[in-house]
Amino acid sequence: MHVIINGEMLPRDLAKVQVSDSLISTGEALRISFRVHNSLPLRLERHIDRLALALSSPYIALPFAVSGRTLQRQISELCARDGLYDAIAHYIISPGENAALISDFRDPPKVTTILYLEEITPYRKLTENGIRLWISPFKRVRGDLSAVFPYGSKPLQATRMAVREGYDDAVITDESGNLLNVCCGNLFAVVDGALITPHLQKDGVYPGVMRELVLSEAAKMGIVVYQEPLTPEVCVKASEFFVTSSALEVAFVREIGGRIFREFPISAKFQLACIEQLLSEKPAI
User: Fold this and answer.
1) How far is CA 2 from the centre of its chain?
2) Contact 196, 234 (CB under 8 A)
């Protein structure tokens, strides 16, 4: 298995970054994952847009531009070298060496980029069998963007704690106890046949590419979507929950906060519709 670091492909056991790189010294890095099918990254243009939004945000403010064509070529090369043609690609952008704090940059940062593939099987199992969610004790205060962009270590810490407790992922909540999102994905509730999911700007949740696709597919199906808080009252009424992310696509929730679900008719509709739409699309880059 191989990894591409700063454009250079290396066997993983020979790959290295400097100990002064912020990825190691402070845990600062922007991480995204996306599905690769037949060596082609799905919806890559939307992921590039989302990366640009994250990189330009005040929370990250990293002057770096991602080339979609370069990323697509590198993914194709990794697929051929590793023999993985259906996979999950992970792309990491670190501020690089000697970048103690983003806000304290004096010189242009020497950005570190890391790209590697992972077998899709573990994600397919979660999608097929359902996901168990743990309510994280971490509360996201208003104005904290650590849950909005997959940056830094907080979301990963929440997931790690969830796994230690025997769950698959963690749900981040706000100060009022409203559910926001999982580590690197979005959360939907089904109430009386309609979908409810937090609002991007008002609730400050992750601007997921798969979230965007679910909204589009819901419009096609004639299913109403309310973008409003997932309050405790809404959660009690919900007959289903499902998670969206580019790695999982659409995964129904078997358990959340101790509540067990056994039927997932709406989630199943979106699982099928979203994967069919993804596989029908031709790369735009």
Assistant:
1) 22
2) yes
CA distances from 267 to 132, 249, 260 (A): 15, 11, 15
With respect to residue 249, please indicate whether it lies within any of the assigned structural domains.
yes
C-alpha 15/C-alpha 218 separation (Å) is: 43
Complete DSSP assignment for 65-94: ---HHHHHHHHHHHHHHHT-SEEEEEEEEE
On whether both 80 and 220 belong to a single domain, the answer is no
State the Cα–Cα distance between residues 21 and 134, nearest whole angstrom. 32
Show which of 76, 97, 119 is a domain's final residue.
119
285: in domain: no
In angstroms, what CA-CA distances link 133 with 7, 114, 177, 192, 273? 36, 29, 15, 22, 23
Q: Looking at the structure, do residues 204 and 274 belong to the same domain, yes or no?
A: yes
Q: What is the CATH number of the domain that holds 22?
A: 3.30.470.10
| Portion of the chain with pLDDT greater than 90, in percent | 51
Domain-embedded: residue 70: yes
- Residue-wise pLDDT for 168-210, tens only, equals 999 988 888 999 988 878 999 999 999 999 998 888 888 889 9
237-278 pLDDT, tens per residue?
Answer: 999 999 999 888 999 999 998 899 999 999 999 999 999 998
Q: pTM for the full model?
A: 0.85
- Decide if 133 contacts 253 (C-beta within 8 A): yes
C-alpha neighbours within 13 Å on the C-beta side of residue 241: 29
| Radius of gyration for the alpha carbons in the chain, expressed in angstroms and rounded | 19
Q: Which of 119, 138, 163 represents a domain boundary (last residue)?
A: 119
Examine the pLDDT at 99 and tell me if it is beyond 60: no
Same domain, 137 and 273: yes
- The residues pairing with 240 across neighbouring beta strands, listed in sequence order, are 190
Per DSSP bridges, beta strands 112-119 and 86-94 are antiparallel
